[in-house]
Structures are given as C-alpha cells and as structure tokens.
C-alpha cells in the first residue's frame, strides 16, 4: 500500500493542489499529515481526496485545536502523537523533530513521520525509521512531499515546482 506523507502546508492551497494532483495519479487513498495545516478548509479538502487521513497537529494549528468537533469522520487527528497501525506497521505521527528522535530511541515503532523543520530527512534509529517529507508550503526550500510504500518500506521524495 502506498501512503502520501505531507507536512507544513501553512494554508498554501496552490502548492497542496499541485501535490494532490500527483498523489491522485498514483491512486493513493491514505494520507499522513505531520502538522502545520493551518485551516479547517485544508483538512476538509484532504478528507474529500482520501479514504483515510491521519494528522498530528503542529505549532501553527492553534485554530484547528478549537475545531476538533468539526473534523470529518475519515480523519483521525491528535494534538500530539497519533499512533496507528497500517499494513502491520506500527507508526507514530508527530510534528516535532526532537520528539520523533526521542520516540525512536524507545524502539516502540517501525516508522515515525514528523514535520516542523521543513526539510526532507530520513534516518534509522535502532529499528525505527524516522522520516520527514519536507514542506508543502515552500517557505524555506523547495516544496516537497513523500510517498511511502508499506510493502517495501521505501520512501520516495517528490519535489514540486
């Protein structure tokens, strides 16, 4: 199964639309978002494109924290760590890089996806692979997102224009 991994959208709808167009061509129906979405409208857009959406809120999602009752049913959301199991893989989703590294040292998860730094990054700590898909917004670098294949365990970085 392929999963879209996105982060740090910062309400940049044109960049998100560009990423979602690529993701749609891949027929991906599951999305993990590592925070800094910034608006309920973006969450609703994700819920319309994907069968399942998993979100850990970031430091710029303070408005969303007050709107959790408005989140669509196919979206699982957490203000901190969101733990899920997909295709037999134990996954943690969190916004902050330092927290991802702390969690990896515990060895509880197969994969940890995180955001916040706006920089694509991948590292294995013990048995846990931690992955940052970069940023959709393009605030600090080239916009990017990742596609994760649960069967092979490989992550493909996609750079936007």
| N-to-C CA distance | 26 Å
Low-confidence runs (pLDDT<50, min 5 residues)? none
Q: Rg from C-alpha positions?
A: 14 Å
Structural class: alpha/beta
Find the count of extended strands (DSSP E, 2+ residues).
Answer: 11
Characterise this structure.
- With 161 residues, this protein is an alpha/beta fold.
- It has a single domain (2-159), classed as Purple Acid Phosphatase, chain A, domain 2 (4-Layer Sandwich), CATH 3.60.21.
- It is built from 4 helices and 11 strands; from the N terminus they run E-H-E-H-E-H-E-E-E-H-E-E-E-E-E.
- It has helices at residues 13-25, 40-49, 62-65, 97-106; strands at residues 2-6, 30-33, 52-56, 75-78, 82-86, 89-93, 111-113, 121-125, 128-132, 144-149, 155-159.
- The strands form 2 sheets. The chain has a 6-stranded mixed β-sheet with strand order 4-3-2-1-10-11, covered by helices on one side. A 5-stranded mixed β-sheet has the order 5-6-7-9-8, covered by helices on one side.
- Helix 3 (62-65) links the parallel strand 3 and strand 4.
- The longest helix is centred in the first third of the chain and has 13 residues, at 13-25.
- It is globular and about 40 Å long.
Relevant terms:
161 residues; alpha/beta; Purple Acid Phosphatase, chain A, domain 2; six-stranded mixed sheet; 4 helices; 32% strand; globular
């Amino acid at each position: 199964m392929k999963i879209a991994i996105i982060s740090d959208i910062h309400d940049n709808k044109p960049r998100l639309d560009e990423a979602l167009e690529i993701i749609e061509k891949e027929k991906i129906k599951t999305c993990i978002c590592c925070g800094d979405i910034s608006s309920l409208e973006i969450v609703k857009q994700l819920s319309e494109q994907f069968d399942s959406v998993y979100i850990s809120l970031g430091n710029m999602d303070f408005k969303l924290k007050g709107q959790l009752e408005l989140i669509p049913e196919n979206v699982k959301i957490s203000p901190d760590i969101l733990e899920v199991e997909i295709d037999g893989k134990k996954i943690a989703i969190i916004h902050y890089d330092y927290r991802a590294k702390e969690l990896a040292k515990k060895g509880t998860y197969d994969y940890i996806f995180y955001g916040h730094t706006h920089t694509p990054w991948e590292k294995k700590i013990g048995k846990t692979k931690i992955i940052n898909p970069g940023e959709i917004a393009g605030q600090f670098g080239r916009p990017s997102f990742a596609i994760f294949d649960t069967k092979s365990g490989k992550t493909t970085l996609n750079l936007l224009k």
